[in-house]
TrEMBL record:
Alphabetical keyword list: 4Fe-4S, Iron, Iron-sulfur, Lyase, Metal-binding
Annotated InterPro entries: Class-I_Fumarase/Tartrate_DH (IPR051208), Fe-S_hydro-lyase_TtdA-typ_cat (IPR004646)
EC number: 4.2.1.2
Catalytic class of the enzyme: lyase
Record protein name field: Fumarate hydratase
Domain of life: Bacteria
Organism: Falsiroseomonas algicola
GO molecular function: 4 iron, 4 sulfur cluster binding; fumarate hydratase activity; metal ion binding
PANTHER family attached to this UniProt entry: FUMARATE HYDRATASE-RELATED, L(+)-TARTRATE DEHYDRATASE SUBUNIT ALPHA-RELATED
One Pfam entry name: Fumerase
Record bears the keyword Iron-sulfur: yes
Family listed: Belongs to the class-I fumarase family.
Domain Fe-S hydro-lyase tartrate dehydratase alpha-type catalytic: start-end pairs: 10-280
Length: 291
């Protein structure tokens, strides 16, 4: 199966706009579950305002949040898919630029030293493009995640040692949740990466933070940790927008990787309540758009 760069470009453009305007169904269901269990009146009012904001944005085809974020594209390539890697990268970049200029969107991407904004949502190494390969035949998935700075600033990494044990992992995650407080626009999805190297660990945390609600860690120990950490985080009383309540997090998601015998890195990456994402799946039958 061969996919033309023009098709990738068009998909990248549409996914960026879609992600910014339409909240995935699992997040809407997450709001419904929080509303049904929240016991604090102020928190209930804040959750209701968030739900109304989502509805207004979608009805008026407006943005869910003014922060268009750092554009991240996760690409999964199946077997027997013919692609020019360089052309793929350039097509994603062109699609991002077109979405920003043609929609138009506010560009949130600047040079880290000069702070110059090219007004394309692009720059050095941005869009971020992550590649992975899957066993499925003749399929390519393009997932777009606009990662806003409010939640991205709630990122933490600690190089634990094996002697810290599971208690050290839990302590670090709870401390991170308390430090983030209301600055990350809760309720959130807390993504936890455990193991690997420092960079892989942080990447896993972001993968975890952007997983759909209701999904579980493939690792048995990781899945058990998701449940206990979610209970602990929601017992902190941080609540929606940090103003108190039971609804600090929709969920805590964990991803794990093998690591070195003398270390155990742990990373936290947080996704705000506007947990935006969109995806396109290319097969021989055409292109399907979803979340």
């Amino acid at each position: 199966m061969r996919i033309a760069p023009e098709a990738i470009e068009e998909a990248a453009k549409l996914l960026y706009i879609r992600a910014l305007k339409i909240l995935p169904d699992d997040i809407k269901e997450g709001f419904s579950q929080l509303v049904s269990t929240e016991t604090d009146e102020t928190a209930q009012s804040i959750l209701a305002t968030m739900v109304e904001n989502i509805g207004v944005a979608e009805r008026t085809e407006n943005l869910l949040c003014q922060d268009t974020g750092i554009p991240i594209f996760n690409v999964e390539i199946g077997r027997n898919v013919e692609l020019d890697g360089w052309a793929l990268k350039q097509a994603i970049r062109r699609g991002t630029e077109r979405a920003t200029r043609e929609h138009p969107l506010r560009s949130s991407v600047v040079h880290p030293i000069t702070r110059q904004n090219e007004h394309t949502s692009c720059g050095a190494h941005v869009p971020v493009i992550n590649l992975d390969f899957v066993e499925e035949e003749r399929v390519l998935r393009l997932a777009m995640i606009p990662k806003g700075s409010g939640s991205e600033n709630g990122s933490f990494l600690q190089m634990l040692i094996p002697a810290d044990g599971l208690a050290g992992v839990k302590r670090f995650v709870i401390d991170a949740a308390m430090k983030a407080g209301g600055k990350v626009c809760p309720p959130t999805i807390m993504g936890i990466g455990i193991g690997g190297t420092s960079d892989l660990c942080m990447h896993l945390a972001k993968v975890a933070a952007t997983r759909p609600l209701g999904s579980r860690c493939a690792d048995e120990q990781g899945a058990a940790l998701e449940v206990s950490l979610a209970d602990a985080v929601n017992s902190l009383g941080i609540g929606p927008q940090g103003l108190g309540g039971d609804s600090t997090a929709f969920a805590v998601h964990v991803e794990v990787a093998a690591t070195h015998i003398t270390m155990n890195p742990v990373a936290v990456n947080i996704q705000c309540h506007s947990a935006r994402r969109a995806s396109a799946t290319f097969t021989p039958d055409g292109v399907s758009i979803g979340f």
